[in-house]
Structures are given as structure tokens and as C-alpha cells.
Amino acid sequence: MTTSLQNVALELKAVHKSFGRTPIINGVDLAIAQGERHAIIGPNGAGKSTLFNLISGRFHATSESFWQKVRRPGLADPTFNGGYAEVGYLLTDDQAAYKNGVIERVRPKAPLGAGGIGAVQVNARYDWLDLSDAGVSGGHQRTVGVSVIWIPTAYVRFIANYGHMWLDDAALTASGDHSYGVDAAGMRAQFDF
What we know:
The protein has one helix spanning 48-56, and strands at 8-19, 22-33, 59-69, 79-90, 96-99, 102-106, 119-133, 136-153, 156-168, 180-191. By secondary structure, it is mainly beta. A six-stranded antiparallel sheet has the order 3-4-7-8-9-10, with no helix packed on it. Strands 1-2 form a two-stranded antiparallel sheet.
């Protein structure tokens, strides 16, 4: 299929990638038009994950939604929904590896203690949860959040978060009001051992 240059969403020309002296990607050309969907397939070790990492680079985007139908004998069965969408960007020249369908941890190229500052990432996220349906009044919740993550080594991360939450028809009230907003900020550290 020939792709018109006016509607190209992604284009790769003569992409090469080697690990040491071992070539993994050797001269890939690819043009994907807006609205097209493609799959990267091949045997293990063919370079699929490496090509995906080259395409995605330091940017990530992910989302998920879930519907839960609750069975209530003798009553209407409600369906609840929740989910999120998130985008993030590594400000340093680092990336998370994608291997066997899993996005792995960020391993800083220049970790703290080895002459570098580690990796720094910023994220933005939107969450929603709807717990009102078929006579159940659990409310609706929406959250917008931002975070900054410092990853000094592959096994340590420090996270600063801010989020604003809107609650509508909430079961718990704030001064008698069932619809209100909440601001929250927090910091945490994660150690993997």
C-alpha cells in the first residue's frame, strides 16, 4: 500500500540499531497513514521490542477501562465503569524497555553514583469512576493528576503527585453537599529489592 505524504502519522527511514557489534534492526523503512493499524510480528529475537522502543522513545501513553455488572437477585443489576488515561515523557535520555508484552522499569543510562542524575519523568493522568446505576447511588468521581518522578537508579524512585478530584452525587458528603472537589498532593518513595 502506498501512503500519501500528506496523511503520514509515523514514518521511519533506514532505521538501524545495534547492541555492541550485533545488529538488531537493519534498515527498516515504514510509513503508517493516519487511521491505519499495524502489528509487529516475528520470531523471538527478531527485534520487535527493539523496534517498538525506537518508535515510542521517551514518550508513553496508556489507558484502560473496566465495566463490572453486579448481580442482585430480585433487584435491577447495575453496571459500574471506571478507567484511566495517562501520558508521560522522560525528560532525560532514557526509556522503559518493552519486552514480551510488558513495559519494564526505567533503567537510567546515567544513574546517580555513576556520574549522572538518574532519570526524570513527568506524567499527566485522568481517572474516572461511575458507581451510580440501577438504583445504586455511589456517585461519580473524576480526577486529573500530574506527577514528577525521579529515578536515581533502576531500583529506587521518588514520586511527587498532585491531583484534583471532582465528586458528584457522592455517598459521603462534604458539609452536607453531595457534589464537591478535593485537592491532594503527596510524595512517596519506592524501593525494589
